[in-house]
Amino acid sequence: MESCFSTTISSSSSPFSIFSIQGSSSNVGRKFSKSCMHPQLLSCQLPKPFLQLNGRPKYRLNQRRSAYLSSATYKDPISAEKQGWDLGRFFKTLYFFNGPPSPAKIVEFIIEKLSGSSPEESEKKMGTSDYVLVVGATGGVGRRVVNNLRKKGLPVKALVRNEEKARKMLGPDIELIVGDITKESTLVAQYFKGVKKVINAASVIIGPKEGDTPDRAKYSQGVKFFEPEIKGDSPEMVEYIGMKNLINAVRESVGLRTGKLLFGIEDQLSKELDWGALDDVVMGGVSESTFQIDRTGGEGGKPTGLFKGIVSTANNGGFTSIRTKNFSSPVDLKAYDGFELRLKGDGRRYKLIVRTSTDWDTVGYTASFDTIGGQWQSIRLPFSSLRPVFRARTVSDAPPFNPSNVVSFQLMFSKFEYDGKLNPTFVEGPFELPLSTIKAYIKDPITPRFVHVSSAGVTRPDRPGIDLSKQPPAVRLNKELDFVLTFKLKGEDLIRESGIPYTIVRPCALTEEPAGADLVFDQGDNITGKISREEIALICIAALESPYACDKTFEVKSVVPFSEPFTVDPENPPPEKDYNIYFQTLKDGITGKESLGQSAIAV
């Protein structure tokens, strides 16, 4: 005869299939023998106490079990009197979340407890910083970005190819990631943990054909003053393939504008979680819940998850919940600001519980939320609203919630709030809560997470009717320079399509002059002129904090013509600029590609 505890993985080909759903009466991902469907559990005599969890005895109540929960309408009356405790369901709950006992797990638990600090204490000691990653940190713009970020006291990491060169140029205490954007294997995702924002100043190297001085004096003058050629890696490798590799390396760390899907289906993405029922049976109660997939119960007839059950206060119970198994590896959500649940409310108050420790019985970071009956709604729960709770009591000395180490979720409907307070919407009986998605979100107003230094002129080589004789050398010589501007534009497109909040800065010809000149910001890729590398570094840093710069592409130059040098009196320096004044003038969707019409950009 088939065991009552057997589970099977669903063979459904649906991308929304969620398997191994403990305690579910649904046939999704689970099957029961006919004997398991019987509404009563045979009683047996056990010594009292028969089991201890975390030092607290659990007693068996030898009465009739509550009615078996199924998808049928609940008919039996709810009673607060003592009812039979389902011992089998209790053990199935333990088995689902913890698996069969093993000597290895016992040894691992003992070693962890003897080794000192708990995971929460370790989080408290470690702390994490929101780093700004500077790519191309030893270049003319990149090293200025590093220096100005450090002057502001911001934590910086530099991605460089040559560690020795970087130490000499940037100082011995700079945090380095040694890697090459043209070599994907060198960009290990773990290296970028803690990076929340990126300034990319990496660029293909263009130098004089006839060579340069040791201090690159000709290069510093600009391509206008020498016959140029590509030095080192090709524009395709640096500007396009390198950009693709860099985006893939930092995407998880810096976050996406539309958020990170953690459960459910959204657009073409799907995310499964292994949910199981965790009800008051663990403390002697008789409430019962399940998690099913309703294939047509979501918005627009789409699939949705369904948390449903029957809650009872019998045997001093009063809660039902579903909880995920611990994730195979912790989820890092440090790029985000909170959780967003898309659900259909029933007018009741629920709790979301998030754990950052793999321990079974540990602090859960908890937020309650109210729902509106009969309406699909989005519930946003900021990370800052999550309170550390253990067995319905606030843990005042617990470390703050660590979004970089999320290991499980739990959704609960309970009679109890926190610290002795009761849920004002609690009613015994059946309930249903359709839940279509759980996401992590970036709060408004969104600011850029990826600032890229490109170049003015990237759309001009393919622009119909343009007079190349009046254009800068890089535009005229695009083909001779291995299509450098064409690949820069392709790299820009990768950023715009990545989903990462971005700013693309297109400087005109770069100079070694100081910052401080009056500026012209423009869009559409039409202007020519010059601008200081120092000014570009300051613009990039300012863009990171400005919602007005988010998802914008623009060109910039100084008002000083090429023929006139720009200098600054050290005794009377120009005032610091408020770059937001310029950012506020920018518009969405203008890249200069509009002038290309339907013509394809190809090489």
UniProtKB/TrEMBL annotation:
Protein name: NADH:ubiquinone oxidoreductase intermediate-associated protein 30 domain-containing protein
SUPFAM superfamilies from the UniProt entry: Galactose-binding domain-like, NAD(P)-binding Rossmann-fold domains
Domain NAD(P)-binding: 136-251, 448-547
Residue ranges of every copy of the NADH:ubiquinone oxidoreductase intermediate-associated protein domain listed in the record: 270-433
Alphabetized Gene3D superfamilies for the sequence: NAD(P)-binding Rossmann-like Domain
Pfam families assigned: CIA30 (PF08547), NAD_binding_10 (PF13460)
InterPro entries hit by this protein: Galactose-bd-like_sf (IPR008979), NAD(P)-bd_dom (IPR016040), NAD(P)-bd_dom_sf (IPR036291), NADH-UbQ_OxRdtase-assoc_prot30 (IPR013857)
Superkingdom classification of source: Eukaryota
